[in-house]
Amino acid sequence: MSGIIEQERYTCAIGALQSVVAIPKAVPILHSGPGCGDMIQGFFERSTGYAGGSTSPCTNFTEKEVVFGGIDRLRQIITNTYKVLDTDLQVVLTGCTAGIVGDDVDSLVQEFQDAGKPIVSVETAGFKASNFEAHSLVVNGIIEQYVSLFEYSNESRSEANTVNLFASIPYQDPFWKGNLAEYKRLLAGIGLKANVLFGPQSEGVLEWQSIPRANFNILISPWYGKPVVDKLKNRYQQDYTWFPHIPIGANETERFLKQVLAFALEQGANIEEKKALEFIKQESDAYYEEIDNLATFLLEFRYGLPSHVHILHDAGYVAALSKFLLHEVGIVPKEQFIVDNTPEKFQEQIRRDLNSTSDKREIPLYFEPDAGKAQNIIRGLHHKGRGIIIGSGWDKELAKEKDYDFLSAAVPTPYRLVLTTNYAGFTGGLRVIEDIYHNVLATYR
Question: Three-state DSSP class for 197?
Fold first, then answer.
């Protein structure tokens, strides 16, 4: 066995540079070879932000640095970056070469920290973790080395109705901007102010500085991000409520909001419960009004619509879309494929979450980081009726082979432009329906 992965739908640890790019006016500095930034840009596309991908400052490790070390080069790059770019935060990320050579990056960064510069160092050698795991490393690094500087001016848990939200991983989730905006809107609707920390809805480093003041934390994830909320619980005694997948559509969004509402009241938040429940009902009613409007369309095209689905995505989307499509769209989940390289210790709880979707049948689930193998499994399946594949752009040709419909909803996404679209929440559920049936009608026979 060669151990080669044909279609990896995630990157190595240095891919977490995109988590830095997603913080307004934060800049990643790569202590790595010259190809690392290009590789990340090529995978995520349209993701340069303020200074990401191939535009990230980089030491461009060569044979010279491998032999003699690259600390002097890194010192020069950091110094020049402060001269050239107007930054609020710099995060130094190490690549494989720096990890092998053993440069003492932490001590160098400490020199700049001692001089009052807002800078953080995180070890992200590619052979140590995936970008799913490295996202938490970066967030925790910022908390330890930057947010901690403002603890003296922040009384822990002093804002009863403020929460820190940890959900979509920037850029790894194509819909991260829209999802975070929708979470923020929904949480405001039940009376909570959410620090989303990333993207245009964030106040940048000012919002990060206020992390200790939040009453509690919300984690929307099957596994990634868990180390962050665990750290905050230990450091600031902030408890957290954990929703194991993305809430899509009415059923799961109602359940998510009611779970958060109950937890907020337990934590002493100053919320009018009746008013919050009225907001949830209004959102739900508006959603079902649109669903009612679908009746004529579904009746007219019922023989040409997909009856079953295969999803190739990360664990949060596989569970979320399976539940939504079965219960609110009527598309039956068949074999599902989680391609995020989920750590083994989380796999059983994710399997239970998916199988809670239906009490009539078990949904076949594969944890397969090699999406090429997942595609081969689908090639060998023979289900009656018309199917649809939801995955990355790499799955488009597979859908064509199977004569299935196709929806691009995962990275890499070369056949789709996503700006602020959301799949989370009530509105996200409606958007999923629009996207599926738009593609179906485009190929209607």
Answer: coil
